[in-house]
Design brief:
- The protein is mostly helical.
- It has two domains: about 25-145, no CATH class; about 150-295, no CATH class.
- About 75% of the residues lie in helices and about 5% in strands.
- Helix 3 (about 60-75) packs antiparallel against helix 7 (about 135-145) and helix 9 (about 200-220) runs parallel beside helix 11.
- The termini are far apart.
- Residues about 1-10 have low confidence and may be disordered.
């Protein structure tokens, strides 16, 4: 009885096949990158322009590189498996959304479709498990996209009023005569306008992003991370109220020039560092509490 003879696979043949497969992978990756750049060139360039030129979106200059670094550091999940059909379906949906938002000239949706396409490509090549593995980089990319103007205006006005009320109350506590009218604080000889730029929305957005980043890197439990994120909101509001008070105090007792220009901007940066230090302190306390709970078997 004779067996079926199988063709011998020489090492040279095997090496040639592997090189051909590697070449196909590189060609596929290059074509994917080129197609992505062509399709999403407008949202990419306008987003980078906003990061560079718009102070309210400047935190994207920090978040985007950090997101890329975290993705590279996390690497590919050991059990990642490509899901071609799911990834392709989501990619088609993202491309359709991109063109629909382009026809409507709606930047936020256009940029959201770009992030959706990145997620779809990740699923196509590595599966949904990889998206979960990269949850922090994807979250940072989402936070790096500026909110629509309609949303920012709706949020800025209540924050302006809250900062004005807190600043006026603190000035009255320091025995400064104050007349509050909306977002206008009148003190003897001067009027302070709490504008949209001074609403604290900028610092609130940046601080919330930092809370997610710090929580993911230094806290172990989901409850601790959620608590840190929630704590970032009152910290930003209180510090901004202190900024309004400090501006009024310096204008009234020291020099009116301290309420405008470079000195006023420097004051804002210093107080943002104070709020960032408060967030870091809260994260440190949270880490200690988590360690205590884990030792006691509570968490």
């Amino acid at each position: 009885m004779t067996g079926l003879a199988l063709p011998a696979l020489s090492p040279r043949r095997l090496l040639t096949d592997l090189k051909g497969l590697e070449r196909q992978v590189w060609v596929s990756a290059a074509l994917t990158i080129i197609a992505f750049i062509v399709l999403f060139f407008e949202p990419m360039t306008t987003l980078a322009g906003d990061w560079w030129n718009d102070p309210d979106a400047g935190h994207g200059l920090l978040l985007a590189p950090v997101a890329l670094w975290l993705a590279a550091k996390a690497g590919i999940h050991p059990r990642a498996r490509r899901q071609v059909w799911l990834g392709a379906a989501l990619l088609i949906a993202a491309v359709l959304l991109r063109y629909a938002s382009g026809l409507a000239s709606e930047l936020f949706t256009m940029r959201a479709s770009m992030i959706g396409a990145l997620g779809a490509l990740t699923i196509y090549y590595c599966g949904f498990r990889q998206v979960v593995h990269w949850w922090l980089p994807f979250t940072l990319f989402v936070l790096a996209v500026p909110l629509p103007e309609l949303v920012t205006q709706a949020l800025a006005l209540p924050l302006q009023f809250k900062a004005s009320q807190m600043g006026a109350a603190l000035l009255e506590a320091r025995h400064v005569p104050v007349l509050l009218s909306g977002n206008i604080i009148r003190i003897p000889g001067h009027e302070l306008f709490v504008t949209e730029a001074c609403s604290g929305l900028r610092s609130l957005t940046a601080l919330a992003s930092m809370a997610i980043l710090i929580g993911a890197l230094f806290l172990r439990t989901i409850s601790g991370r959620v608590a840190l994120f929630a704590l970032a909101i009152p910290i930003a509001i209180v510090v901004n109220g202190l900024r309004v008070f400090l501006t009024g105090f310096l204008v009234h007792f020291v020099d009116p020039k301290l309420g405008t220009g470079f000195l006023h901007a420097t004051e804002g940066w210093l107080l943002f560092l104070v709020s960032l230090a408060g967030l870091a302190g809260a994260a440190t306390v949270g880490r200690l509490l988590e360690g205590f709970a884990l030792r006691k078997g509570v968490a």
